[in-house]
UniProtKB/TrEMBL annotation:
Keywords: NADP, One-carbon metabolism, Oxidoreductase. One of its GO terms (molecular function) is dihydrofolate reductase activity. It is an enzyme of class 1 (oxidoreductase). Belongs to the dihydrofolate reductase family. This is dihydrofolate reductase. Residues 1-147 form the DHFR domain. Pathway: Cofactor biosynthesis; tetrahydrofolate biosynthesis; 5,6,7,8-tetrahydrofolate from 7,8-dihydrofolate: step 1/1. Its EC number is 1.5.1.3. GO terms for cellular component: cytosol. It holds the Pfam family DHFR_1. The gene is folA. PROSITE patterns: DHFR_1, DHFR_2.
Length: 148
């Protein structure tokens, strides 16, 4: 997310950071990922080597290679670690259910229409922060928060 909590615009990402995408792949591969229907549409296909869950209120929706669910209670195979991967609506509803937040912080304000919720400092402790990285003239860092 950007300094002003933007995570998306026009149902796509406002930036392209290949290092961040590679890190996302490395962290989530082999695990379960949960996303909103709009994020799934922006990606356009199931992400390989991960169990893909898509949240929707549309009980008719069927997608090959994806578990379409209407509630987190529908997630099976709870032996696997579960990553909530967006977008804004889903982050807002599920942030309180998470133990850890893995945030890529873009060090500038960006215009957008999808947002990460405010991270409440009385709930979340910043436990790790990478050095500032730079790609395509965009400065960013990786932050890890744990629930207090
Ligand atoms: N920067 C990042 O890390 C990042 C990560 C992911 C996404 N994004 C961006 O975020 C944007 C998309 O976010 P968004 O907030 O617009 O949409 P979203 O959270 O991806 O999906 C919203 C949809 O999820 C379903 N949904 C929401 N709450 C639900 C519930 N309680 N039960 C069942 N289904 C529920 C609904 O689908 P139905 O309408 O089908 O019922 C809703 O329309 C895009 O711009 C995307 O590129 C950014």
């Amino acid at each position: 997310m950007s300094e002003n909590n933007v995570i998306g615009i026009d149902n796509s990402l406002p930036w392209h950071l290949s290092g961040d995408l590679k890190r996302f792949k490395a962290i989530t591969t082999g695990h379960q990922i949960v996303m909103g229907r709009k994020t799934y549409e922006s990606i356009g296909k199931p992400l390989p080597n991960r169990v893909n869950f898509v949240l929707t209120r549309n009980s008719d929706l069927k997608i090959d290679g994806v578990h379409v669910i209407s509630s987190l209670n529908d997630i099976s195979d709870s032996d696997k670690k579960t990553f909530i991967i967006g977008g804004g609506e889903i982050y807002s509803q599920l942030i309180d259910s998470c133990d850890e937040l893995l945030v890529t912080k873009i060090h500038r304000e960006i215009h957008g229409d999808a947002f990460f919720p405010m991270i409440d400092a009385s709930v979340w402790s910043l436990v790790d922060q990478s050095e500032k990285l730079n790609e395509n003239d965009i400065e960013f860092s990786y932050l890890t928060y744990r629930k207090i």
